[in-house]
Amino acid sequence: MSTSLQGKHIILGITGGIAAYKSVVLLRLLVKAGADVQVVITPNGKEFITPVTLSALSGKPVVSEFFTANSGEWHSHVDLGLWADAMVVAPATASSIAKMANGVADNMLITTYLSAKAPVFVAPAMDLDMMAHPSTTRNIELLRSYGNHIIEPAAGELASHLVGKGRMEEPENIVAVLESFFAKSESLSGRRILITAGPTIERIDPVRYISNFSSGKMGYAIAEEAAARGAEVTLVSGPVDLRPRHSRIRLVKVESAIEMLRACEEAFPACDTAIMSAAVADYAPSEPYTCKIKRERDGVDSIALRKNPDIAATLGAIKTPGQRLVGFALETDNAIDNGAEKLARKHLDMIVVNSLADSGAGFGTDTNKVTLLFADGRPAEAFSLKSKADVAKDILDAVERL
Ligand code: C5P
Predict the structure, then answer these.
(1) How many helices (H) and strands (E) does the chain have?
(2) Which one is catalytic: 212, 308, 354, 368?
(3) Ligand 1 pocket residue status of 311, Cβ below 6 Å
(4) Bridge partners of residue 235, in order along the sequence
(5) What is the CA(254)–ligand 1 centre distance, in A?
(6) Cα of 320 to ligand 1 centre, how many Å?
(7) What are 230-279's pLDDT values in tens digits?
(8) Angle made by CA atoms 232, 233, 239, in degrees to the nearest 5
(9) Is 148 a residue of the active site?
(10) I want to staple 49 with a disulfide (CB 3.0 to 4.6 A). Which of 20, 78, 135, 180 is the partner?
(11) How far apart are CA 195 and CA 324, in angstroms?
(12) CA–CA gap between residue 153 and residue 173 (Å, rounded)
C-alpha cells in the first residue's frame, strides 16, 4: 500500500515516560508505512525501552549520546536535523517539553530538536496533574507558537490508575496525523501565491507616522500554511515583529501602501492566487515633512491627507481568468453585508470576513473567527473561534476549492 509516508525521513524522539512502550508500535507502523525512521532516545527513555528493540525495528543504530563511547564516533545532530522530513517526539514528557520550549540542550534529543529544519510533532504523555500544571500548559503553548504541531493527549486511564487527560495519543492516530500532514504538503505544489500582511505605515515626518494595530499574524500564518502545502509564496509585508520560517516564503518588506502596491504589481502576474490580508492605511499625508515637525517652529494643527491606492481592487481589475483573488474584511458592524459589498466592488473571488464585535477576533490576537463569502454564488461558510494557524488552514482549504 502506498502512503504519503513512503520514503519520508522521520526522526522518532523517545523520552522517559511509561508511554515509551507505545513508541515501539509507533515505530513499527511508521516503518510499515514506508518511512525511513531514525530513533533518537533520551538517557531516561532507555530506562523504559531498550535500544535493541528499537534498532532491530528501525534497521538502524539508535542515537542517544553525542558520541559513541568506545569509538569516539560523533553523532551530528545538525546532519540529523537536515536529514529529517519530520520529527515526532512521542512520548514527550513534561521535562522534555520544558527543555524543548526553553532550549535546554542537555541531551542528543533536544539538540536534534533545536537543529531540526523539518516540522516537529509533539505527543505529550504524563499524569493528569502534570498535564494540567500551568508550567506545562505554558510550555506546550510555547512549542505551538514556534510552529510545532501538538498531538493532544487523550483523556482516559493513566499508568497511575488516575483517570484524566495525559494518555499519549494512540500510535495509529499519530501515524494518521503524519500521513495527512504529508498528503497535504503536496496539495499546493507548483502554485505561486502572493500574500500581503501587516499594516502599512505612512510617514508624517521622519519620526512620526499613521498606521494601525495590525500584527501581521493572520497573513504570516497563511504564508506558512501555503508554503507547508508546497506553494511558492511571495509575502509582501508591512513592518511587523514576525519573520517567516518556511524556506519557500520569499519576504518582500515594504513600508507604505504605495510600496506595497508596487511590490504586488510586480509579483502578481507570475502568481495564480493573491491573498490580501494586509491592513493597508486608507490615507497618507499628502506631503510628508522632510524634517521633524517642531511645535514651536511649524505650529502644525492639521495634516492634509490623500487617499491611498486600493491594492486589492487594483489587482482585481487586472486579474486574468486563471487567477484567484482573496480579500479580507475586518468590520465593526454589518460585517457580512459590508464583506459582500467589498467582494463585488474589488472583483474578489472570496472574502474572509471577521468582526471586531467577536471577542478573540481581529488585530493582535492569536485567534480569529471568520466567515468566508464567495463570488461564484456558493453558500457562505462560517467557522468557530480558532487559532490563526487553524484559520489559515480553513482559508487555504477554501482557496484550493476555488
Ligand atoms: O476596504 P477595506 O480596507 O475594508 O478592504 C479590505 C481588503 O482590501 C483587504 O483584503 C485589504 O488587504 C485590501 N486593501 C488593499 N488596499 C487598500 C485597502 C484595502 O489591498 N488600500
Answers:
(1) 15, 21
(2) 212
(3) yes
(4) 195, 251
(5) 16
(6) 20
(7) 999 999 999 999 999 888 999 999 999 999 999 999 999 999 999 999 99
(8) 160
(9) no
(10) 20
(11) 12
(12) 11
